[in-house]
# Entry
Amino acid sequence: MKPTLTQLTHLSTGDYFATWLRSGTTVESLHGSDGRCLASSLGAKLPRLTKAEMAAAHAERHPAYDLAAQGTAARPELARRMQAAADLVAGGLVTLYEDGAGIVASRSHACAHQVDDHHCDCQDFQFRGSWCAHRIARRMALALGQPELVRPFVAPAAFPQPRLSISAPSPAG
Ligand SMILES: [Zn+2]
# Structure
């Protein structure tokens, strides 16, 4: 059965975040600026977005992008990673566990990284030993009060002012 597009959001990254109804189940997906499906929940195969659908999509800022702006003001050298982290949070690719540890999937879902307060197993962190996009994404998800999730975070209408706490690098880093 053909899925029905129920909601489409144009992310500030240029990508699209879509919600579909398929056989009574809600499925979320991330689409590139050309409309092609990049990733989806439940590994669902979803159609490419049409030009008309993309034109009608409303632009929305996920609160993670506000955190990225806030974080970039404090740590301009992390600007690119802040943006990448916001993309991960907005794309619903961060899963937090009760102990605060998290799993951050790559946008292509090709791999996932284990992240806690001090470490990430990605190459960026192994090489630089500092704030990689995954550690920032985990912090953003914590700051936004994102519960353990299987679906992307959706901000409530009245959202408390989130704060992103990104400390200066340690002397060793
Ligand atoms: Zn990482």
User: Anything to note?
Assistant: Residues 148-160 have pLDDT under 50 and may be disordered.
